């Protein structure tokens, strides 16, 4: 009775503005923790009893659990191949029967061009297409399959032609899927701004800058070269118009996405496979777009980290981030770093990627971070990560791309040391997965406590790149969602126990 009266007083006071929101959130959380939360924790633990995991009940549990945000998320890789086929049909484009690639109107293929209807009417061909456009059925066959990482990244070459044709529709599909899965926020890597350095520098100057950047041996040398490059862009009307057009298109695509149940924000990025001048152009235009638009909350860098160019230019890319972060300190940074493992690259390439992302690029979040146990001075690095950054754990993609799972996965290191952890999906369309299943993998492999799982959910808001007002609003909503969830789980637990 006392707790009910306290909650009523706090709720009434908050409703009429007598108490700050954070006090209300803290108090409601305390009330929940002393009651329904403990029963929910007991229910969760009961699914692991007697050496027999109740997987189906655990899946129900995580399906209903509030999940906060999915903040290591790629727009293109999160839509399913079937959706892209629908878009191809909508455009009245075709599929090359031999390559299973998209062929636009008035373009030629290598052999017979099929409509989407014809592809889908051929069950064998349709299944083959899905296995090339995603990871569907990978591992079920033993003949002529490419390496898993190659298979994963190749999928984008198939659907990239159509992936940006209906952005607003795609965002709405992701939104509706998220709402049904009890996700309240997505921070997705949408696209590059799309400025081509060749439009501003002739071939001779491109080659000159690429050579100079690659030969620079310090941050100071790199800064001098970037200072020279940036003067070509900073006051250039065409360049600035390109950035503004990108923002305008994004604002149009974003219309109708945010509501009382859901919020979406965007990261732009550079592709680390390009020549240095183009990588810097993409990073700079991304920083500028994020500086100008509240919808763009961060700048990332993507593409396979084990690519020869990615490896040779890695330190240079980190210096580019360092340079731009000093110019635009309010722009947030999340970096794919340490998405590597032994055998994928030579040992020398495993010892510094996360460290340089933290020390040089000043990354606020590390995407993947799988090679942490191979990094030099890893204990000091863990200490820095605990203080300055969070790690985005993507269990499904780490298993598929790197072959790292179970006790080999550094989740065990990060969780033991107390580095802030965020559970995310990466490319749920390619992996044919969702955030619920990521939590399933987490629980069944490592059995963290319910309290720890709940902490990871809150981390997805705490370490997002939203402003503090938006974070506080989402945290308050998350408090209430967990209160309802825990009340429901307590009832379900009691009903099961009473049978």
User: How helix-rich are the residues, as a percent range?
Assistant: 55-70%
**Biggest sheet descriptor:** 8 strands, parallel
What's the total helix number?
A: 24
Taken as a percent bin, the fraction of beta residues is 5-15%
Distance between the termini: 29 Å
Which class best fits the helix and strand makeup? alpha/beta
- The average pLDDT is 92
Write up what this structure looks like:
The protein has 499 residues and is an alpha/beta fold. Helices cover 57% and strands 11% of the residues. The chain contains 24 helices and eleven strands. It has helices spanning 2-15, 21-34, 36-46, 55-64, 75-78, 81-91, 116-121, 123-133, 148-163, 167-180, 203-215, 219-234, 237-254, 276-292, 308-312, 314-327, 353-359, 378-388, 395-402, 411-417, 428-431, 435-446, 450-462, 468-497; strands spanning 69-74, 94-96, 102-103, 113-114, 185-191, 263-271, 296-302, 332-337, 365-368, 390-393, 421-423. The strands form two sheets. The protein has an eight-stranded parallel sheet. Strands 3-2-4 form a three-stranded antiparallel sheet. Helix 14 packs parallel to helix 16. It is globular and about 80 Å long. Residues 1-32 have low confidence and may be disordered.
